[in-house]
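JOB MANIFEST
job_type = single_chain_structure
chain_count = 1
residues = 340
[input]
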Amino acid sequence: MSLPSSLLTSLPEQLALDQERPFEAIRLQSPLKGPRLIVTAAVHGNETCGTFAIERLVKQFEQGELKLKCGAVTFVPVTNPKAYRLQRRNGDRNLNRRLIPTDTPAQYEDHIANWLCPLLAEHDGLLDLHSFQSGAQPFALFGPKNNTETLEPFAHANIEEALVQRLGCSRFVYGWLDTYAKGIGRRAAEVNAGRFNAKEVDVDTRYGIGTTEYMRSTGGWSITLECSQHDDPGGREVAYQAILNTLIYLGLIEGTPPQPAQDFQVLGLYDVYDRFDMNDTFAKVWKSFDPIAQGEIIGTRADGTVLRAQQDCFIVFPNIKSQPGQEWFYLARSGGRLGR
């Protein structure tokens, strides 16, 4: 018996997909109405502190140590199974960029998006757990002010700003998508000038949309928590406590209400620089949130152009592995939100 030609053409892809563990969501639903929370981990496969924390909490619910009072909570312990299996950031591409459903999935992460995006839309809020490459302490990213603008319209700034202060960390960052859009504009200008091939770099602001941005686009709220460095086991406890605090604050479980951070730092992203050449080099080994004084050299381009700080600022997400046409580093400045 011969197989239909349509099946034959899809068979190699199907076999590749069959190698991966199935997408998994653990859902707890109370008969009583309440907030609907989703908690995701391992969006990047080598960022697993949230996975361990979720597994610990699920066991506590199963054993009756924790009980859902109302509403619903969904746990996704491994959001990107392929990247998780490979113990690296991406499967085929970065899941936390251009996260949108598609009728023509071409990469593994497209299949995840087709499953994950509708799941996110069923909930009121998202806590997305990550870890970072360089730095010393946990930090959380929250969204824009309430607005009706085109880029990221939003109406839940109050809950994000209240919750982000109760996760258990003391550094908070905002301004992701509008800063990313600024960088995209600069990148598009470089494409027009002939530095990059338009087919090889992303010049669409939608590429900046990840889990939290997609969640906000559906009318929900969302927070990203960067729990620790990738290989720091202490990040598991940070992730666990953050989930617990969120569940208590939303009234989903009983517990002592978490108190807001008292001594904290708020930083607003305001600029991003792409790498132009693999020989672009940093002036030193930067770590996220290292302070930079006005006039200090950040790095030097392969052509000798020196990049200096135009004001006192902080470097965020410096990436020595960045490829030409991708973000090399972000800059942030103090204050501007959360009453500062």
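[summary]
The longest strand covers residues 265-274.
The mean pLDDT is 92.
exit_status = 0
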